[in-house]
User: What shape does this take?
Amino acid sequence: MSKLPNVTSSIFSVMSQLANEHGAINLSQGFPNFPADEQLLQISERLVHGNIHQYTPMAGLPSLMEKIGKLTFQYYHRNINSSTELLITAGATQGIYTAINTFVNKGEEVILLDPSYDSYEPSVIMAGGVPVRISLNDDYSPDFNRIEAALSPKTKMIIINNPHNPTGRIWTESEFEVLESLLEKHPQILILGDEVYEYISFSQPHISFHTRPKLVERTIIASSFGKSLHVTGWKIGYLIAPENLMNEIKKVHQFLVFSVNSFSQHIISEYLDIVDFHAISKMYLQKRDLFRELIKDSRFELLPCDGTYFQLVNYQNISKQNDVDFSRELIAKHGVAAIPLSVFYKDGTDRNVLRFCFAKTDETLIEAAKKLKRV
Assistant: This one.
């Protein structure tokens, strides 16, 4: 008997396969198609011959952990104890799965805000928990009336993805204040802050749970070097949480992966001495602006993009088809692959919106835009 009977091939795999079959430009894949930083590759080439290929300590390479601690202070003015409040994970998804399965018990509820990343619900189900999925407002801001109505003594956790995939929206100061007020009434609720796009923000600064003193002692924060350094295939991220929570997370982590691959930890530890995250954000801002400028005269309606490397568009001026069918047609007839937004909703909410990934070479974006302007 399947533990995940409703899980089938992901929409990402389906659209990528269709893109390959039709020779389409693939803007559905949520990862870059350009090389990693040359400096990162040079460090890799130099270190590969070193004595760095055995297990690191379970929680992570000490030098990398120390530098993450400094990075956290530099960007968020939060002092963490890197030896007791930090864990290197095999990607943020593994970190999220581990955190959920550490704290969520059978029958306990987890609030998910739709449209939501597809790994959340299966992780809750595997823990024996009950996913409670609540739709965001039409502008993808949190609907606090619905969130408050869903909170109960059974609620164990709320997952907040900020900056948000798939919409690219960033929470505001006032929204954090409302959340703080709500959760003050429910001290048993933990927060899982999925902040994997934290260093990719544009029109307004990313506000991290690291900076929220009323919430930080009950929050597990997931970060991703794969996203931040555009090396998604390395599958390396980290969790930061108060020591009492981290102690429990480590108990599960050690029997899940024990320790993350040593090679990438050593490389990133050295690379953190020279990388400029502001420059990475600026690079993605240029790509966002290029893509928006290229398709502004198309029949697609551009929606706001505060952060991440995803751009939403509305196609209601082009077709009344549902978004899955329109996405398939876009590939077959027009040669560009996107992700339909309805797949991120439990109830399949369809507002004729697609997600394009602009973490691509300028040449890819230019060629894709030519095709989209002919739609």
Q: What stands out?
A: The radius of gyration is 21 Å. The chain has two domains: 11-30+277-372, 51-271. The domain at 51-271 is CATH 3.40.640.10 (Aspartate Aminotransferase; domain 2). The chain has a mean pLDDT of 96.
